[in-house]
Design brief:
Oligomer: heterodimer
CATH class of the largest domain in chain B: Mainly Alpha
Shape of chain B: elongated
Largest interface: A-B, 58 and 57 residues
Order of helices and strands of chain A: HHHHHH
Number of helices of chain A: 6
Number of strands of chain B: 5
Number of strands of chain A: 0
Radius of gyration of chain B: 25 Å
Helix content of chain B: 55-70%
Number of domains of chain B: 2
CATH architecture of the largest domain in chain B: Up-down Bundle
Largest sheet of chain B: 5 strands, antiparallel
Radius of gyration of chain A: 23 Å
Strand content of chain B: 5-15%
CATH superfamily of the largest domain in chain B: Cytochrome c oxidase, subunit III, four-helix bundle
CATH topology of the largest domain in chain B: Four Helix Bundle (Hemerythrin (Met), subunit A)
Structural class of chain A: mainly alpha
Structural class of chain B: alpha+beta
Strand content of chain A: under 5%
Helix content of chain A: over 70%
Amino acid sequence: MAAADGASARKSIYRTALILTALTALEFTIAGLKHHLSSTLGLSEGAAGLMVLVTFVVLTIFKAFYIVAEFMHLKHEVKVLAFTIVLPFLFILWLIIGLVVDGDYWGEQTALQNGFEVEQVQPTTMEAPATLTQYYG
Amino acid sequence: MAEVAVDKKALIEGERPMLNASYGKLMMWFFLVSDAFTFSGLLIAYGALRVRAGSQGLAWADPEAVFTHTPLLYELFHIEAPLVFVGIMTFILILSSVTMVLAVEAGHRKSRKEVQKWVLLTILGGATFLSCQAYEWYHFIIGTHNGAVILTADELAGVNVGGAETAEGVAVFPVMSREEPGQPQEVLEVRMRNGIRITNPAVISRVNDIVSNPDQYHERFTDGGANMKANEYGPPAFANLFFFVTGFHGTHVFSGVVLLVILFLNVKKGTYEKRGHYEMTEKIGLYWHFVDLVWVFVFTFFYLV
């Protein structure tokens, strides 16, 4: 096994390293060009911003996959072990959605209390906790 | 035939009691899952507070305007290069992950010399990354010139400044509104270095005046910077989260370097040669790749988005 196996393992390591470097370079290039995107493609600022955000998230997930699957060797472990480790992160997906939505609502309430105008505020009787608004202003 | 007593062999390194993995590797994986949850909590807090600032009408810090210092380029040529240094730091951490996985591979072949070489290079990568982080924190805390605005005692009449006054006056950080097309940005909040928020409308409009006429009032601007209470870049939560998230990640890198040094000394002593396997390299390798994995997310959400 020894010598031949080692050579193919090293080849796959260098391949993964190259992919990770290329993805990082791509992210860096997009970060440099993102301000020209809306004028070049004729998109609105918001649409261009969303496109850049989605691209960054997708590239990050690709990079995370290569690190976990190849460098941490999870792709080559027993399937049950891989799922035991990956599936709990569904809770994180839920937490992201929950807290980002809540952050948006919280900001609107703070703005209302500070007397700023906010677009599209839904009528509601609930208010952000007084102590928190006082603290965070 | 079948013995149901505690299998003491299962706890010994090199044995694979379940899921075709050793006890030590399984426990390292479970630790990393819980650690990943901690980091997720921090990054999601960043997302929630950033979205909150947006819907409140406050401008969040623009990373391209904050992280502009690159060693030598800045000191020798005064060139500002947005995000270049963070890109280099990311590359260094990825490279150290590569040398780590090469050490693990050499361990499989029980090649002591090679494990030693790759572990040493990984230590170098980790130490370099930590030094880069120190440089970045230094410039983040010191800040840029023109970061804060000096207000005189007259302009602050009737405002309790809580002992923040110096011989020059009181330095304040304006928190700007979001940039809207066709509308100038205005000052929505003013905070002093001690974090106390000035709500007096006269003071806010005075700061707005100064900030929108930088040429006329250039002598009013002074070095900015950041602390846990107020910063020149945006809402206070931005600097707090920067310190906490990159600091917590840096602590992990530091622990990783310590573990790697112990590993290196043991490899040198021949501990794993005697033991017959290099499983410790794999376990510390898992931890080290995890540190790289977290940075991938920090890089995207703190510096790129």
